[in-house]
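Data deposition worksheet. Section B asks for the primary sequence of the deposited chain exactly as it was used as input, without tags or linkers unless they were present during the calculation. Section C holds the resulting structure in token form. Section D is free text for depositor observations; keep each observation to a single sentence. Incomplete worksheets are returned to the depositor.
Section A, Depositor: J.P.
Section B:
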Amino acid sequence: MVRGIRGAVVAEDNSPEAIRRATRELLQAMVAMNEASVDDIVAVFFTVTRDLDRAFPASAVRELGWTHVPLLDAMAPPVDDDLPRCIRALVLVNTDRSPREIRHVYLGQARCLRPDLATWQPGGVLDGLDGLAVAQALAGGNRG
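Section C:
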């Protein structure tokens, strides 16, 4: 069954490096917390706030070796009180998990967006791990 995993993160600044770093951290956490692999992922949709215009979040995912996952970036509509420098993601994944078992991931400042869904916290299962190594292991390495 296809399920949606929601997540969000705030980039440190509007640099390409900060956007890619935040995106990788978010996707790595979303996949790890839901025990998914890259082969389970149907597609990933991203939105960014208007103040993030120096890089596409999808480019960070390609750096993880997810070359066969359909990705789409979009600009979020301008909303006056929106969280600045916010990257939101919707990962569609094939899983046997029920909707209640899906773990949505809102990192750092983005936890305020959906505190009812924010399950990852500092000191959790990902702390102390090399996030890139975790993501590549889950993805089966670089698939070229």
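Section D:
The radius of gyration is 14 Å.
DSSP finds three helices and five strands in the chain.
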